[in-house]
Amino acid sequence: MQKLNINITKNNILYPITIDSNLLDKIDELFDFRGYTSIFIISDDNVAPLYLGKVSNSIAKSHDVPIDSFVFKAGENSKNLETVTEAIAKLVKLNIDRKALIINLGGGITTDMGGFIASTYLRGIDFINISTSIVGMVDASVGGKTGVNFEHLKNYIGVFNHPKAVIMDIDTLNTLPKKDFVAGFGEVIKHGLIYDKNYFELVTSKHPANFSKEELVEIIKKSCEIKADVVQKDERESGIRKILNFGHTAGHAFESLSFDTDTPLLHGEAVSLGMIVAAKLSELIGNITHEEFIKIESAIKESKLPILTSSYQLLAIKQKMKLDKKSINQKPKWTLLKSIGECDWNVEVGEKFIDEALNYVASPGRS
Ligand code: GLY
Questions:
Q1: CB-hemisphere CA count at 13 Å for 40?
Q2: Atom of ligand 1 nearest to the CA of 245
Q3: Which residue has the least CA distance to atom 5 on ligand 1?
Q4: Spacing, Cα 364 to ligand 1 middle (Å)
């Protein structure tokens, strides 16, 4: 069993992350449920049939506490205020009080939205995250960002608020669709690119599906360590935390635009495309060499993550990027590579380079 802590001493925030196989049957041993008046589990209709019963039974075997749940339709289209309202209506109907605990059981959509519900209901009640996807494990469930989309604008509404614990049972990845599993590696590769060249080499040394269980635990732990290190330095993203947005400026634009198509992108897929744009910009402004760029592009391609899209109009992408949460005066602030394993943030780039980098990911000739 691997354990690490998020410890933001300045703000008195401390919580454990536990990573291992076979954890869902012993949730009662991993968190102290005493003192809570009730437990409310939030999950989606893919994950709930698989794991909600297991989690409730594990708690019920040693705690006599009411356990209720709210299950929403899986997918990014549910990550909005309408679903939040439905969940809150159920909390109110059940008279759930502020001494209750919310458990978010699922991937990044569930932990982001469930964290937001817990953070706003009755001005905030405790929550824990039980993460069941790669994106959830290495990114969304850790670090205190909670929120929902607003009219296809990614994570436009939200608050910073941390869970009391995060539990990652890697057996849950066995039921994750292969496409989601691979997409999750977009965030894993991001951690290597922004923070640790050796880690980048390791996680791109084979196809994501070919890592053993033991290697996967190590990878998830290392990504969580990188994320913890960054978040501990800058909880509210006024500086270094912006490096975690590498690939997200264009990535969020691709993701938002894809919601209206028949082939919506998974978050990690959109981030992969966004990382190609950001790496290209890093090359164009002279931070990395063309050889380094090709190395990054090939690694992403070898992991079977997308590197090419011809689906979107340049203008539409640029319009979305202006509305990105990180844009100031409608100018995107880029997180770009200084080298493989090191990042700059708040970089402004000329329109010509942005067009060139965006056109590059839409050039079928290079696929
Ligand atoms: N997902 C980026 C962050 O947590 O800051």
A1: 26
A2: 2
A3: 244
A4: 31
pLDDT tens by residue, 129-160: 999 999 999 999 899 999 999 997 889 999 99
Calculate how far, in angstroms, residue 316's C-alpha sits from the geometric centre of ligand 1: 24
Q: How far is CA 155 from CA 106, 160, 189, 277, 332, in A?
A: 17, 12, 22, 21, 16
Report how far ligand 1's centroid is from the alpha carbon of 328 (Å): 18
Q: pLDDT band at residue 315, thresholds of 50, 70 and 90? A: confident
Nearest atom (ligand 1) to Cα of 144: 4
Per residue in 43-61, pLDDT (tens digit) is 999 999 999 999 999 999 9
**Which residue spans within the chain are E strands per DSSP?**
2-8, 13-20, 39-44, 67-72, 101-106, 126-131, 145-150, 153-160, 166-169, 334-339, 342-347
Instruction: Compute, in angstroms, the gap from residue 144 CA to the centroid of ligand 1.
Output: 8
Cα separation of 310 and 316, whole Å? 13
Q: How confident is the model at residue 311 (pLDDT cuts 50, 70, 90)?
A: confident
Number of C-beta neighbours around residue 296 at 10 A? 26
pLDDT per residue over 197-230, tens digit each?
999 999 999 999 999 999 999 999 999 999 999 9
Alpha-carbon gap, residue 367 to 362, rounded angstroms? 9
Ligand 1 atom closest to Cα of residue 145: 4
pLDDT at 367 over 60: no
Query: What mean pLDDT value characterizes the chain?
Result: 94
Residue whose structure tokens are 């050796």: 198
**Are the beta carbons of 315 and 321 closer than 8 angstroms?**
no
Pocket of ligand 1 (CB under 6 A): 139, 143, 145, 241, 244
